Amino acid sequence: MAGSLTDIPGLKVGHYTDSTAATGCTVILCERGAVPGVHISGASPGGRDIELLRPGYSVSLVHGVLLSGGSAYGLDAAAGVMRYLEEQGAGFDTVAGVVPIVPAAIIYDLSIGDPRVRPTADNAYEACCLATATQTAEGSVGAGTGATVGKCLGAAHATKGGLGMASVALGNDVFVAALIVVNAWGDVIDPHGGRTIAGPRELSTGRFLCTADLLKEHRMRRPFPTSNTVIGVVATNVRLRKSQTHRLAQMAQVGLARTIDPCGTMYDGDTLFFLSCGEKRCDMNVLGVGAVEAVTEAVQRAVRAAKGVAGVPAVSDLKEK
After folding, report:
1. Category of 310 on φ-ψ map: left (φ > 0), alpha (ψ -120 to 50) or beta
2. Are 161 and 67 in contact (CB under 8 A)?
3. Digit-coded pLDDT (tens) for 3-41
4. First to last CA, the chain
C-alpha cells in the first residue's frame, strides 16, 4: 500500500499544478464506473452534479470526480474531464454516444497568487492525461496548490494548506482510502493530543493561535471571508449500494471534525464524495471506522506535506520561536 487513494483498484489520480498563480485541480478517474455518495457539512459549498448523487436519483455510477481551485470559475474545468472520458469511451451509453458523469467540488483560492488565473477545461484534461494508478503526490499540488488554513485573522496570518492522502487496510483485502484538500477556515489539530498543527499565526512570535478562542474573544477579521472549504474523495473496494455510499460519506465527515476546529462553519463548504468500485464485502460499521481514520490521516498529511506558495508559509517552512 502506498498510502494513496490509488490503493483502491480501478482509481486513477492526476494533478494540474500552477504554483505561480497558486491554483490547480485534481481529477479522480473511475472509467469503469463507481457507485457514488456525497455529504455536505459546510454552509458555503460549490459543486456540480451534486444532487444526482443522492439516493433516489436515477444515476447509479460516476466516471470521474473533479476537485478544483478557482472558486466557482473552476467548475468549468469539469468539461475537460468529460472530454477525456468521452475519448476513452467511458460513460453511460446513449443513442448519441457515451455521456460521462463527473461531479465536481471547488475551493476558493483566489485570495493568493493571481486571481485572474483559474483551472480550465484544458488544465483538467492535462490532469487526466497525467493520471495514474500509482499517484502519491501530496502537499501543494493539484487542487491543494492554493489551499490555506487558519484565516480567522485574515490571509496575512494564514498557514499553507494542501492535499493529503491516506489508506487503511481492514482485513480480508478490504481497503478504504481518502484524498482530502484542506482549505479550512479553522485550525488543523492533532486528534491524539489536541495540539494545533496549522492555524492562524501570531506574526510577532510565529506561534499558532486557536481559532475557537479567537471567536469566543470576538477577535476576528470582519467581514468574514467565504474563502474556505475542505473537499475530498473517500473510496473503497467494497461493493455498496448508493444508499450505503451516501451514509458512509456522512460517517467520513467525523474525520474532519476530529482534525479541523471549527469545521462545517458558515464560511466553509465542506464536501466529501464517497466511491464504491469493488466487489469485496465488509460490515458498514467497519468501513465507517476505516473511512474516519483515512480522512483523519489525510487531513494531517495535507498540511505537513505542503510547501509555501505565494508568500503563505507552510508548516514545513516555519521555525519554532
Report:
1. left
2. no
3. 999 999 999 999 999 999 999 999 999 999 999 999 999
4. 37
Please give the Cα distance from 167 to 238 (Å, whole number): 14
pTM beyond 0.85: the answer is: yes
DSSP state of 263: -
DSSP strands (E only) in the chain: 12-18, 23-40, 47-48, 62-68, 92-94, 97-99, 104-106, 148-149, 159-160, 162-169, 175-182, 187-189, 196-198, 231-238, 260-261, 271-280
DSSP 42-73: SSS--EES-GGGSTTSS---EEEEEEESSGGG
Nearest of 159, 133, 160, 173 to residue 7 by alpha carbon: 133
Write out the DSSP string of 112-127: SS-TT----HHHHHHH
Give residue for cell 517552512. 317
185 Cβ contact partners less than 8 Å away, ≥ 6 residues apart:
149, 150, 151, 152, 211, 225, 228, 262, 265, 267, 268
Instruction: Tell which residue, 83, 98, 104, 116, has the closest CA to residue 33.
Output: 98
Tell me how far the alpha carbon of residue 248 is from its chain's centroid.
16
AA letter at 214:
L
Which tens digits make up the pLDDT trace of 54-83? 999 999 999 999 999 999 999 999 999 999
Q: What is the spatial distance between Cα 79 and Cα 146, in angstroms, rounded to a whole number?
A: 21
96, 98, 104, 110 alpha-carbon torsion, rounded to 10°: -70
Whole-number Å distance between alpha carbons of 67 and 144: 9
Contact 211, 261 (CB under 8 A): yes
Look up residue 94 and give its three cell numbers.
Answer: 446513449
For residue 307, what is its C-alpha cell? 510547501
Q: Please give the C-alpha separations between residue 313 and each of 18, 143, 158, in angstroms, as whole numbers.
A: 17, 17, 8
Residue 223, preceding peptide bond in cis (omega within 30° of 0): yes
Report helix, strand or coil for 180: strand
Rounded CA separation 79/20 (Å): 24
